[in-house]
Amino acid sequence: MMVELAIKLGVCALVLGGVLNFAGMQTWLERKQSALMQDRIGANRAYFTIPWWLGGLPVNWILRKLGGLGILNAIADILKLLTKEDLIPEKGNRFLHTLAPLLSVFFALMAFCAIPIGPTVHLWGRDIPLQVANVNAGLLFVLALGSIGVYGVILAGMVSGNNLSTLGGLRASSQMISYEIALGISLIGAIIWYGTLDLQLMIERQGTYLLGGWLPHWGVVVQPLGCLIFMTAALAHTKRVPFDLPEAEPEIIGYFTEYSGMKFGLFFLTDFVEVVLVSALTTVLFFGGWQVPYLAPDGFYFPWGAFVPVSHLGYVIWGLVSFTVKVTAFIWFFMLIRWTLPRFRYDQLMHLGWKILFPLSLLNIAATSVIAVATR
Amino acid sequence: MPEPKYISLTVDGKTVTVPEGTTVLQACEKAQSPVPFYCYHPGLSIAGNCRICLVEIAGTPKLQIACYTRAAEGMVVNTTSDNTLNGRRDVLEFLLINHPLDCPVCDQAGECWLQDYYMQHGLYDPKFDEQKIKKPKAVPIGPTVMLDAERCILCSRCVRFTDEISKTGEFGIFNRGDHSEIGVHPGKTLDNKYSGNVVDICPVGALTDRDFRFKCRVWYLGSTNSVCPGCSRGCNTQIHYNRERDWRPHIANGERVMRLKPRYNPDVNQWWMCDEGRYGYHFIDENRLTQVQFRRNGAVQQKPWEEGLELIAGTLKQLRDAKALDQAGVILSSHMTNENLYASRKFFTTLGVKQLVFQRPKSGSSDTFLIQADKSPNARGAQALGIAEGAEALLDLAAKKALRVLFVFVQDLTELFGPSRVQEAARQLELLVFVGTNMNPTSQLAHVALPSAVYAEQDGTFTNFEGRVQRINAALTPWGEAKPEWQVFSELADKLNLGLAFADPQTIFTELAKTEKPFQGLSYQLISDQGALLKK
Amino acid sequence: MSTLSEQLLHRIRDAHKRREMTWWERTYLPAIAQGLWLTSRHFWRNLFLHIAHRVGLFRDVPAAVTIQYPDQQRQMAPRLRTRHRLTKRADGTPRCVACMMCETVCPARCIYIVAGEHPDPNVEKVPKSFDIDLGKCVYCGYCVEACPEDAIRMDTQRHDIAAYSRDGMWLDIKELLNPGSKQFGEPPEKFVQLPPPPSR
User: How distant is the alpha carbon of residue C17 from its chain centre?
Assistant: First the structure.
């Protein structure tokens, strides 16, 4: 029993640590990536030295290099946010004002429970799934938590005692509703095709091949439209440019205007966690999750007939690395979109959500159903 | 006096009718075709040496100077013909030959007639290629005037002024031709009582005021019509104050009034004023009472108005309740305006105080021209309001403990009666109230000192020694917490439930004109800026 | 041949005449793809160059257009209006004659001149103190235009000014005569006076 618990805690730590590190590093990634895209240098100034009797020169040398890369800016950010004054507006509700960012970040992190980050490990005679909770309706669980997450945002807008924040919160809620629908419906195609809501199972079913073994049976191959709709809606879900109407820091004022210090930091963290979440979901649902093309549990079976054996541990590591690489690539991609496209106007946003993505996702269900019935 | 003969002439196509003997320049002015001039001054004899007032008169081959030519019947004058304008420009070119490019450092810049006419008639592309003649610069020729001979255009106005008006004759023009220069005669200094006027009449920057020197640029000045409070002549003046003090506090160390200038009034001072009055404005910004002061056993405390008024009203109430108002005395001042005198008289008589007098300051020197011996502006007004004169009796009463409360306005009594008598009186009094503008030995003896507004901060009227009622206008807002006296009485009356209230000087004057016989028929409109005489 | 800017202007003027977009264009997918292609091209190119610079390759191809401001100063045009200075006579006294032209013309009212007497009657007037409140200055350069003596110029090439209070951006006559000599203290000393010029 204790061993089971320890293993679960270990997996938890792995997932939580991975997610938070990803989210934290995104502050760096965002700065550096946008800088590179815009022919700038980006953050390169924050670093600190430690006294010689605590580590001395080599550590300081590394710190200086890291600072030059802008990585230590993340630490500087956190220090700043932690030491800033926590302001609660006079007309705000103290309890709810504090609760809102916590809710936000809590639900965003909870969603990772159901996401499998690698194949099941067989170790010391045990089967250890690399997934915190093996929920058999995992997809629903993730979507449900994603929808609840918006409560934090609406709450933040409502209890700030600021009309503009309230409007920001309302924009967030209407945007969430518009896009959750397209998000959910776009996935029904994938659910029909793979015939399951269990994410681990879905990944395993993507491990087969089409076209005589050449083409992996990934979601993006069989559900291209669903994939596109999902990615668009998911981007809207993260409330980032070009869908950042709820926040809109530069001009129209968003729901977290009245937040400062680490409470503001938590909203920011939520945003980054959600980017990781939708990247992970895209990977799981449409890009084979932790699957590596042509890699079966005992080795690589290349379509031209070659076979390279791989040990079980190697297989697990391949899976984890594959998952990480795919998630990173999607984070990079979402970041690329965020720094390329301008923000939508509100009516354009609603138009896109209700009049384009929603009908298209319905069309996707119809088409998928017909094809699924026809091919089986 | 025989009726003058009138003649009519044509100026720039306009027909004007003027009395015989009028000069062409005056006729042109009447026809609203002004002619530029430097040496001409209506208060001085005509010299005709600056030559800028050239006009074309039909029938004469050459241009004529307008200031010296008499107008004649049927004369046709042209002040705007090309010939006239060319003439003016050429004269200006000659005047400027030796004039240095001093405008940046010259105090006259901004009110300089050379600058003004150069803007209109200047030769913007000068032909002068020789060396300018060097002459003495920045020479203090007297306690009040600085001479810069290079800037002089030799109009001789100052020479004529000292010859004809002040009759002291310090100035002369020395050397010849290009080297002619203005100066004072050897061994003399320009220190007559009217020396400041030469600065006013100098059309250029040759004679500048040492008191005003480098203090403020003239374009920062605002101007308000007022009357000099220096003596009972009541010369008409303009108060020139720093209009931009809010954002240029560094000018003249934050002083507000920069200088006084005489204002033309044919019946009082014509164009002139004396130096005593001209430089006697410093009290406006110096050594002022800024707050209500309480003094008990030698310790001074700054208090808000409310407490000061409460204390005075309380004491007066006690006296009234004890039916002892005959133990209160009031010494008004001939420095107060008619309105303030009236308001105070009304307040104290309504209250029941009978011992109400006014006091003049120490009399000073006088002459036959402007300066009067009475050094206060409104003694005649106080008399006209029926207020008795002389504070001595009240001081004696106070010293004999027959008085409990004494009000003293503006005047410094120690200067008049000696410090010991005033100190003795102050010691015996229960309450000595000083209401005044500046700190002085009397204010320092008072148990309560209330700050009041100076004449430059008040609207009102003064009555000069001839009985001419003249307007003063507020150029400034009251210093610190100072208030006009009528406002103090209004607030005191409110505290004592006297049923009195004063709204502003104009309504006080309207009331005064109704109730006081000598002032009957007068109003601010009638007084205007030239004054009006009291009824005989 | 028209210039590029003229072409652009032309396109803006004729914007209302733009042709209808096709169905494919109206999905915006090609335009989005184009944009992503552009930005990602920059990203990969600059990433490559940054890494290459680290190992000493392609040093002459810049990976960024950034100027690292405090360490690296941009070459400024000589006509750029920068912090003021007062020019001097041969003997080191200010050329300024305290005529107050700049003080008068200044739209921000940030110049404060106190005039004094110069012992040489041919100079006559000299500023006792000359202060500029850079916290108010709008760098319009009117003071330079108005000056009849060429006594004030805005050519120090200094434009960095930072302080912890509004008063901290106060320049006195000593700093204006010798730009860069002042240790900015807070609160600053205002209306600092020069020693009176020696009489000749």
Answer: 42
Report the CATH number of the C85-177 domain.
3.30.70.3270
* Same-domain status, B91 and B186: no
- Residue B295 token pair: 């003094």
* Tally of domains in chain A: 1
Nearest to A39 among C35, C64, C68 (CB): C64
> Can you give the residue range of the structural domain that contains B309?
292-533
Judge whether C9 is closer than 8 Å to chain A, CB to CB: no
Q: Domain range for residue A135?
A: 89-375
> Taking a C-beta distance cutoff of 8 angstroms, is the pair B373, B230 a contact?
no
Rg (CA), chain B: 28
Query: For chain C, what are the domain ranges?
Result: 20-66, 85-177
Minimal C-alpha gap between A36 and chain C (Å): 5
How far is it, in rounded angstroms, from Cα A226 to Cα B229?
96
Per-residue pLDDT of chain A (376 residues; tens, 9 = 90+): 788 889 889 889 999 999 988 888 888 889 999 999 999 988 888 888 888 777 677 888 888 888 888 888 888 888 999 999 988 888 888 899 999 999 999 999 999 988 998 888 888 778 888 888 888 888 899 888 888 888 888 888 888 888 888 888 888 888 888 898 899 899 999 899 888 888 988 898 888 888 777 888 898 888 899 999 999 999 988 888 788 888 877 777 788 888 988 999 998 899 899 999 999 999 999 998 898 888 888 888 888 888 888 888 899 999 999 999 999 999 999 999 999 998 888 888 898 889 989 999 999 999 999 998 888 7
Question: CA of C110 to nearest chain B CA: how many angstroms apart?
Answer: 9
Nearest CA in chain C to A337: C36
Are B138 and C97 in contact (CB < 8 Å)? no
- The shortest CB-CB distance from C39 to any of A40, A41, A339 is to A339
**Residue recorded with tokens 């031209």:** A304
ipTM (interface pTM): 0.85
Q: Which pTM value belongs to this model?
A: 0.74
Rounded distance between C-alpha atoms, residue A114 and residue C84, angstroms: 66
Phi-psi domain of B467 (left: phi exceeds 0; alpha: psi -120 through 50; beta: other): left
Across the interface, do B138 and C124 touch by the CB < 8 Å criterion? yes
Give the CATH number of the domain where residue B345 resides. Answer: 3.40.50.740
Burial label for C3, CB within 10 Å (0-12, 13-18, 19+), is: exposed
In this structure, the answer to whether residues B312 and B413 fall within a common structural domain is yes
Asked if C121 and B109 come within 8 Å (Cβ–Cβ), the reply is: no
Q: Measured between alpha carbons, how far apart are the two ends of chain B, in Å? A: 25
Go through chain C and tell me how many residues it has: 200
* Cα–Cα distance for residue pair A274/A111, rounded to 1 Å: 9
Whether residue B114 is contained in a domain is answered as no
Which CATH number characterizes residue B11's domain?
A: 3.10.20.740
- Do B227 and B311 share a domain, yes or no? no
Would residue B110 count as lying in a domain?
no
Confirm or reject contact between B218 and chain C (CB < 8 A).
no
CB pair distance less than 8 Å for B137 and C115: no
